[in-house]
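Annotated sample (chain length 129).
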Amino acid sequence: MANNYLQFCEVLKLNNEKETAWWEANPDEEDWPEGVDISTFDNGEGVCVRFMAEESGDVDALGKLIYRFMLETDSQGTFSLTWSETCSKMRVGEFGGGYMVVSNKGCAIQRAHELAQQEILALGKGDQK
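Output written by the structure step:
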């Protein structure tokens, strides 16, 4: 038996009271992405939101939540997060990761295996798995 993990930890610095108030009022815990710990804290320079997943986290739902936050607060910032996908045993195809970039213009999420497949096709090698 093997254990698979999707892990990340990233911080979003809030820029004003409107953004801080949004996180204090939203989201309700039942709206939080599954497997993601969301907490606010003051880092001495301002209020921040920490997003963390120790075993698994729904990055797609988190991206939608952060995008909603940016739209509803008129945030002009950009947020990025990278994650790792690992396995407790050496198994083919069980390691990877990805990235997310969110602004008030949209949310882009890419996974390492998808990016590798795009490069394979771009190099004219055909569909390899």
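Annotation: The first strand starts at residue 4 and ends at 13.
Annotation: The chain has one domain: 4-122.
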